[in-house]
UniProtKB/TrEMBL annotation:
The chain crosses the membrane at residues 603-623, 665-689, 845-864. Belongs to the glutamate-gated ion channel (TC 1.A.10.1) family. Residues 928-941 have a biased composition (Polar residues). CDD domains: GluR_Plant (cd13686), PBP1_GABAb_receptor_plant (cd19990). Its main location: membrane. This is Glutamate receptor. The lineage of its organism: Eukaryota, Viridiplantae, Streptophyta, Embryophyta, Tracheophyta. Residues 484-826 form the Ionotropic glutamate receptor C-terminal domain.
Length: 941
């Protein structure tokens, strides 16, 4: 027994020595490798938190973080046997101190860090956590630039400002504004957020007209100077992207400057609702400063967990020993960040992850520095934990916690608020699925996305000044700078615009139209006219438009043609004058000829017409000869009747009546043909005798292009580029003309004398030119461009839209025509092309002749069929008589001749006589065929 006991004690002693040896070896290895290894499921895991505790966001986040740690540690369903230890560090609203605090936090071997709330600190710390492989879960850093691939270990657990800026852009577009002024803190969060806003507005054809940054911690005096400068600009839509500490100061200064009254629009980002929600109780003085402001708040769906958490809020604040502070959305995101880390750690540990840290050799080589970077160690399982965090999907207090491929929370959404009275009104929502809507985003998530403009909707807004009408969003600034309007200093056609000695220094049709349109606007437009050009030649209008696009002028008023290239750089109003390029040529009076009456028809037309007159006369004679005594008589008389009847129908003066049906049918058709021929002849002859003739063979732009004659173009007009670039006309053919006198001189010299064969110019100029030259020239062809004149403004200028509406009103009430008549009504010259005086050819009438010929042929066929039928019934008696009378020695030819003569005689007989003979013959035949009383036939008498 003792031996056995001794033996067992020896074995135990041996095993103990073995384990001590192994443990020593492990410790020696740990010392040699500077590595600390914990068991696979540690009892305690450190989680860091980094934010400014004495701030609107910090006072809401601290109790939420502590509550989340307590809830996780008390929940037996997660991290069994593992306790989360929260290590808090205060950044004290300082970028430098925040960075130092972050480095100190990393010395505590944390597996994840929650925070920071400052995007500036997040940019710096992201480089640290990238090296140490510690995931950084930020519940308040909303800078869009933090989503870049550069920050691998940064994971945002709140909404990205990228979506908030697109929500603001959608609101700007919804209310119809085109320009905003951005007021922001000049830090990483402010600059990057406003940069995204500019991109979002550009997609809506809007823009940031001015960026007004100020330094963090700016004094009230600095903010006052900033807002004074902003108030001198025309835009009245302000986007305020600041922090709660400086935001109220801006509203306070704006109130003093009168910038919280009607016509102003203020849009605040999520900082303002966070501040309002945190106030306990509500400060009425603060609410009076922000009346009518629109703000965005992170949308968190209503849920039982959210309501329970808010019910615990007062108790949580007491535990955190904070000053009175209200609840805001950042408390929910902070709470969910802890639970996100807990869920990810649970999966990480279940998948075999080990919480271990290693020293980085690079941190030991500090080049003699006294900074203790060696205390910073790398989390070995950081990459695995980061992958686990990216694939998490659960429902927290703030909604669904899940990340898209860009590591943003899915289903970003905001409440659109309107501050009225002592509270806020929810006027709608914004979600990434359907943008602006009055339906809660969680409902829209279940439906197909619909971002159409017709689907965008918000409830009514009470704007600053307690007005409900949507503000225009801009006014003319009160900085003493009127609108700079460039006016072409023309040397010709000064009826449209020209220099004037009396104010405003210019006059003309275009100026009167612009002034009348401006007077219809509901707001004053201070303006000054600046002549563009040296007055020696017409200015280049492309250069004028370019100067407006380059902001050297605010607008261009004059005879500026709206062309495709110009619309790419400026905005035009509604056209106030129709325009288009036309071709003008000189005309000459055609001397009358004694044989002019023959010119309307070609010789072929004359021949065919005369032949048809004779042909129809013969047809009518044939059809009427047997029935109508007016068409009978001696051969000479009948021949004269044919000629007389044929040509008398030309004047509808024929006195012979037609009695046959066929004759009347042919005559009706023929008289219709004669009517058409007479009308055409009269019109053509009138044109030949009265209309001026062109002095050249140019009939329009096509013949001008195909020719080689020189072409006149107004100096400064876009016609030069159009003819060269679009119609490929050689520049050597184009001649620049500066005035109407040069137009007339060039025409008088002609193409062979150094002048031009034609001029290409815009229709309004040509109308004046024709009137001033007593209509000595004519437009040939049609307008080959369709355009108009408009007033040019810088891109996206709201004045272009308002003046377009005013021009339409001028057109509707007749004022536009009155201005036109005042300046441009000098005569009435035809602006249509020359009447075509070419001869009328047969091809224009062959259809009529064909119809008439067919009608005559049909009538003759019917007539001769009827004649041959009668002749067959009449011919036996004639043949029998003729056979008895011929002598035995006569040949058959004589017999045939006698038969043809009998046919002609038959045709020449009257219809009544033929009918009487046939009737008598029929009666005799019936009498000879009837039987006698004794059954014998009667003998012939």
């Amino acid at each position: 027994m003792d031996v056995l006991l001794t033996t067992r004690l020896g074995s135990i002693r041996t095993l103990g020595l073995f384990f001590l040896t192994v443990l020593g070896a492990v410790e020696a290895m740990g010392d040699a490798g500077n590595t600390s290894v914990s068991v696979s499921r540690p009892r305690t895991v450190n989680i860091g938190a980094l934010f400014t505790m004495d701030s609107v966001i910090g006072r809401a986040a601290k109790p939420a973080l502590q509550a989340a740690i307590d809830d996780v540690n008390s929940d037996s369903s997660i991290l069994k046997g593992v306790k989360l230890n929260l290590i808090l560090h205060d950044t004290n609203c300082s970028g430098f101190l925040g960075t130092v605090e972050a480095l100190q936090l990393m010395e505590n071997d944390v597996v994840a860090a929650i925070g920071p709330q400052s995007s500036g600190i997040a940019h710096v710390i992201s480089h640290v956590v990238n090296e140490l492989h510690v995931p950084l879960l930020s519940f308040a850093a909303t800078d869009p630039a933090l989503s870049s691939l550069q920050y691998t270990y940064f994971l945002r657990t709140t909404q990205n400002d990228f979506f908030q800026m697109y929500a603001i852009a959608d609101m700007v577009d919804y209310f119809g504004w085109k320009e905003v002024i951005a007021i922001y803190v000049d830090d990483d969060n402010g600059r990057n957020g406003i940069s995204v806003l500019g991109d979002a507005l550009a997609k809506k054809r809007a823009k940031i007209s001015y960026k007004a940054p100020f330094t963090p911690g700016a004094t009230r005096s600095d903010i006052n100077d900033l807002l004074v400068g902003v108030n001198l600009m025309e835009s009245r839509v302000y986007v305020l992207h600041v922090n709660p500490d400086s935001g109220l100061t801006i509203f306070s200064v704006a109130k003093v400057l009168g910038m919280m009254s009607s016509s102003y629009v203020w849009i605040a980002t999520d900082w303002l609702p966070s501040l309002i929600d945190s106030m306990e109780p509500v400060d009425t003085d603060t609410m009076n400063l922000i009346q009518g402001v629109i703000a965005l708040r992170h949308h968190t769906p209503d849920s039982a967990g959210k309501r329970n958490f808010m019910a615990r809020w007062n108790t949580l604040k007491y535990k955190a020993r904070l000053e009175p502070s209200g609840f805001n959305s950042y408390a929910l995101y902070a709470y969910d960040s802890v639970w996100l880390a807990a869920h990810a750690l649970e999966v990480f540990l279940n998948e075999g992850g080990v919480v271990s840290f290693s020293n980085d050799p690079r941190l030991h080589d500090t080049n003699g520095s006294t900074l203790h970077f060696a205390s910073l160690r790398v989390f070995d399982g950081g990459a695995q934990l980061l992958q686990t965090l990216n694939r998490m999907n659960f429902t927290g207090l703030s909604g669904q916690i899940q990340f898209d491929p860009d590591r943003n929370l899915v289903h970003p959404a905001y409440d659109v608020l309107n501050i009225v009275g002592t509270g806020v009104r929810t006027i709608g929502f914004w979600s990434n699925d359907s943008h602006l809507s009055v339906v809660a985003p969680e409902i829209l998530h279940t439906k197909p996305p619909n971002t159409s403009s017709s689907n965008q909707k918000l409830n009514d807004v009470v704007w600053p000044g307690e007005i409900t009408k949507i503000p225009k969003g801009w006014v003319f600034p009160n900085n003493g700078k009127p609108l700079r309007i460039a006016v072409p200093n023309r040397v010709s056609y000064k009826e449209f615009m020209g220099k004037d000695k009396s104010p405003p220094g210019v006059k003309g049709y275009c100026i009167d139209v612009f002034e009348a349109a401006v007077n219809l606007l509901s707001y004053p437009v201070p303006r000054s006219y600046i002549l563009f050009g040296d007055g020696k030649r017409n200015p280049e209008y492309n250069d004028l438009v370019y100067q407006v696009a380059q902001n050297n002028y605010d607008a261009a008023v004059g005879d500026v043609t709206i062309t495709t290239n110009r619309t790419r750089i400026v905005d035009f109003t509604q056209p106030y004058m129709e325009s288009g390029l036309v071709v003008v040529v000189p005309v000459k009076e055609e001397k009358s000829s004694p044989w002019a009456f023959l010119q309307p028809f070609t010789w072929q037309m004359w021949c065919v017409t005369g032949a048809f007159f004779l042909f129809v006369g013969v047809v009518i004679w044939i059809l009427e000869h047997r029935l109508n005594h007016e068409f009978r008589g001696p051969p000479r008389q009948q021949l004269m009747t044919i000629f007389w009847f044929s040509f008398s129908t030309m004047f509808f003066s024929h006195r012979e009546n037609t009695v046959s049906t066929l004759g009347r049918m042919v005559l009706i058709i023929w008289l219709f043909v004669v009517l058409i021929i007479n009308s055409s002849y009269t019109a053509s002859l009138t044109s030949i005798l009265t209309v001026q003739q062109l002095s050249s063979g140019i009939q329009g732009i096509d013949s001008l292009i195909s020719g080689s004659e020189p072409i006149g173009v107004q100096d400064g007009s876009f016609a030069w580029n159009y003819l060269v670039n679009e119609l490929n006309i050689a520049e050597s053919r184009l001649v620049k003309l500066k005035s109407q006198e040069e137009y007339a001189t060039a025409f008088r010299l002609g193409p062979k004398g150094g002048g031009v064969a034609a001029i290409v110019d815009e229709l309004p100029y040509i109308e004046l030119f024709l009137a001033d030259t007593n209509c000595g020239y004519r437009i040939v062809g049609q307008e080959f461009t369709k355009s108009g004149w408009g007033f040019a403004f810088q891109r996206d200028s709201p004045l272009a839209v308002d003046l377009s509406t005013a021009i339409l009103r001028l057109s509707e009430n007749g004022d536009l025509q009155k201005i036109h008549d005042k300046w441009l009504s000098h005569g009435d010259c035809s602006i249509t092309s020359q009447v075509d005086a070419n001869r009328l050819s047969l091809k224009s009438f062959w259809g009529l002749f064909l119809i008439c010929g067919i009608a005559c042929a049909i009538a003759l066929i019917i007539f001769f069929c009827k004649i041959f039928g009668q002749y067959r019934r009449f011919s036996p008696d004639v043949e029998e008589t003729e056979v008895e009378e011929i002598e035995p020695g006569r040949s058959r030819r004589t017999i045939g001749s006698a038969s043809f003569k009998g046919l002609i005689d038959f045709v020449d007989r009257k219809e009544a006589e033929i009918k009487e003979i046939l009737k008598r013959k029929t009666s005799d035949s019936k009498r000879n065929a009837s039987p006698s009383t004794d059954g014998q036939p009667h003998s012939p008498p």
